[in-house]
C-alpha cells in the first residue's frame, strides 16, 4: 500500500509522575491539531508550576507523522525533549504534545538519569491516556446537474459516504467525506457520471 490511512492519537489530556532522588517529574499529555496550540499549553504550565526549574516538551503532528519538535528547556542537550519524543515514536502516536515539568530535588541525576526520568514520566502519562486509532479521510466536492442526482446518490449509498454539505438546484453540489484508501474506487465511479466536476477540498 502506498500510504497508511490510519493513525494513533489520544482522546484527551492525561498526567503522569516520576520521582528520582528528590526530583519530581510531572508529565502532561495533550491532544493537539496545530503547532499554534503548543505555546499556550506550555505557558499555562509555566504559570501553574512557576517554581519548577524546567518545562521540557516534545510534540508530533500530522497524519504522516513527519512534523515534530523537542525542547530541553535548559537541561543537557538530548536529555529531556528527545527521550519524550522517543516514547511518542515507539508508541507511534501523533497529534500530541507532552510537557514534563521538573522540580529539582538537590541531587544531580546525570544525563542517563535524566533520560530515564523524562522517558518514564512520559510513559506514566500515556499509560493514563486513552489512545485511539483514527482514519485519514478525504473531503471532495462534487458538482453536477440535477438530472445526474440519482446516479450520484447511488454511489453515495453504495459506499455509505458521509455528506458534509449539500446544495440541490439546477446545479447541485455535494461535499463528501470518505476514508483515504477508498479514494480511487469512489472517484472512479463518480467520474463515469457525465457531466460532473470533482475537486479535492481537504484531508482530515
UniProtKB/TrEMBL annotation:
Record-annotated Impact N-terminal domain positions: 21-126
Pfam family, one: Impact_N
InterPro entries given in the database record: Impact, Impact_N, Impact_N_sf, Ribosomal_Su5_D2-typ_SF, UPF0029_Impact_CS
Family in the record: Belongs to the IMPACT family.
Name the record gives this protein: YigZ family protein
Source taxonomy: Bacteria, Pseudomonadati, Bacteroidota, Cytophagia, Cytophagales
Amino acid at each position: 500500500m502506498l500510504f497508511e490511512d490510519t493513525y494513533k492519537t489520544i482522546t484527551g489530556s492525561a498526567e503522569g509522575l516520576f520521582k528520582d532522588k528528590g526530583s519530581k517529574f510531572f508529565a502532561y499529555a495533550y491532544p493537539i491539531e496545530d503547532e499554534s496550540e503548543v505555546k499556550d499549553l506550555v505557558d499555562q504550565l509555566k504559570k501553574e508550576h512557576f517554581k519548577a526549574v524546567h518545562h521540557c516538551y516534545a510534540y508530533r503532528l500530522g497524519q504522516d507523522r513527519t512534523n515534530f519538535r523537542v525542547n530541553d528547556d535548559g537541561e543537557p542537550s538530548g536529555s529531556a525533549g528527545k527521550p519524550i519524543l522517543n516514547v511518542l515514536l515507539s508508541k507511534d502516536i501523533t497529534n500530541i504534545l507532552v510537557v514534563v515539568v521538573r522540580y529539582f530535588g538537590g541531587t544531580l541525576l546525570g544525563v542517563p538519569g535524566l533520560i530515564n526520568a523524562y522517558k518514564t514520566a512520559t510513559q506514566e502519562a500515556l499509560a493514563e491516556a486513552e489512545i485511539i486509532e483514527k482514519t485519514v479521510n478525504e473531503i471532495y466536492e462534487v458538482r453536477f446537474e440535477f438530472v445526474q442526482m440519482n446516479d450520484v446518490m447511488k454511489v453515495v449509498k453504495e459506499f455509505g459516504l458521509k455528506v458534509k454539505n449539500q446544495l440541490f438546484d439546477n446545479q447541485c453540489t455535494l461535499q463528501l467525506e470518505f476514508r483515504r484508501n477508498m479514494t480511487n474506487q469512489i472517484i472512479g465511479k463518480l467520474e463515469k457520471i457525465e457531466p460532473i466536476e470533482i475537486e479535492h477540498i481537504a484531508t482530515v
